[in-house]
C-alpha cells in the first residue's frame, strides 16, 4: 500500500496516474487494432457461413436430379393403386389389371397355449403353465426380402431359452431378430406368427409348394406345426402369395404389393381384376418453386456480399477503450461501435472475386447442353437496374414452359458435368466459386472451429498484437515502479530537509 504526499503535500498518486495515462496511449492503440482485427475476423467467418449455407442449398436442390424429376401421377381409380416417381426422367403411362394382392404367410397355434396374458410373464419352467412339451432352443427360418428361402443347415434365427425366459421374452426376441412377427391373442389363448416379407418363395423347379416359415428344434411348446404349408393344410395358417397383375398387356407377378417399374413406385391396394389407367406429367409447380427459391437466395447473397464490400468505413470511429466507455452511456457506446465496426470488409478482394465468378457463371452458356443452354432460355435474366449489382429476375411464364417441355434439360443446365468449365452446369460453377472463396477466407480468418490462432493470417496478426501488448505492459509496470521510487525518494528528501529545518529552528530558538 502506497501513502503519498505526506511530506510534500503533493497528490503524487494522481500525478503518477496521469503520467501513466499518457504512456498508455500506444498500448490503447494496440488494443484498438486488436479489437478491430477480431471484428474483421468475425465478419469474415459470418460471410463464410453464408457462402456455405448457399452452397448447401445449391447442392440440395439444383444439383439433385430428384428436384427436377418430380411428377404428378394420376390414375383412374386411385383407391386401387398409387404411383409415384422415384428416379425416372421420362413420363409413365399405361394400364394395370390386378388379379391378386401379395400376402404374407401366417401360422397359429393349434389350440390354447396360455390361459391369460399374466402367464406370458411367468418363467417357462413354472409348472403352473402346464407346458408338457420339451422347452428349449428352437430355430425360425423365413422368406427373405428378395423372395428367396435359405434351406441350408442352421439357416434362419435361433431363439435361445434360458432359465429366466418367459413367453413374453421369447416373443420379443422373435419380433426383434427373426424373419417373422409374433403376438399372443388373449381371446383364443393362441400365438400367431406372420412372415415379415410377403410373397411366395421363388423356386421355378418346385413340384411341391415350398414353405415361407419353418420351425425346427424344441418349438412344440408354442403349440404350432413345423411349417406354414402344413399349418395351411390343417386350417392353422396361410400360404405366402405373390401379387398377380397385368401391366400393359403383360401378365406378371411381384413378391410385394409395392414395387418399381421404370423408375416409378407402384403400390397395389385392391385386387378387382379391372383395367386401371394411369399417366404422369412433370410437377411443374414443385420444380418452379425450387428454381425460384434458388434464384431468390442467390439474389439475397448478391445483396449481402455487395453490402459487405460497399459498407462505409468510418476512420474517425476507433474501438473504444475501457476508460472511454466509462464516460459514455450504453446507448452512446452502441451507436459509436456501430460505426466503428462498419466497413471491416470494404473492397475486400476475396468477396469481390466470388461475386464476379458467380455473375460470370450465371450469365454464361453451358457448352455441353443443347437447347436451353443458358438461363435466358428459361426466362431468367440479369436485372437491367445496375444498382442491383447483377441480381436475377424471373419470367415465370417462360420458366413454366421450359419446365413443362423438358425438366431434365433444365436440370442439365444447372448440373451438367464436363472436363472443361465451359461444359459444366451453372450450379457446378457456382459451388466451385464458393469453395474457392471459402478456402481463401478460412486461410485468412480461420473457421468457427479453429482454436489455434497461428493457423490463419488474422490469427497470427492477433498473436502479434498480444505479444506487443504483453511486452508493453511489462515496460509500463517498470516505468510506474520507477516513478513511485522517484517520488518516494523526493518525499524522503523533503522529509529529511524538514527534519533538519526543524532541528536548526530548535537550535536557534535555544540559543536566543
TrEMBL record:
Q: Which residues form the Flagellar hook-associated protein 2 C-terminal domain?
A: 242-499
The processes (GO biological process) annotated in the record are: bacterial-type flagellum-dependent cell motility; cell adhesion
The cellular location(s) given in this protein's UniProt record come to: Secreted; Bacterial flagellum
Q: Which UniProt keywords apply?
A: Bacterial flagellum, Cell projection, Cilium, Coiled coil, Flagellum, Secreted
> Which InterPro entries does the entry mention?
Flagellin_hook_IN_motif, FliD, FliD_C, FliD_N
Known role: Required for morphogenesis and for the elongation of the flagellar filament by facilitating polymerization of the flagellin monomers at the tip of growing filament. Forms a capping structure, which prevents flagellin subunits (transported through the central channel of the flagellum) from leaking out without polymerization at the distal end.
* Description of how the protein assembles with itself and partners: Homopentamer.
The entry sums up its family as follows: Belongs to the FliD family.
Q: What is this protein called?
A: Flagellar hook-associated protein 2
**Species of provenance:** Psychrobacillus psychrotolerans
Q: Taxonomic classification, please?
A: Bacteria, Bacillati, Bacillota, Bacilli, Bacillales
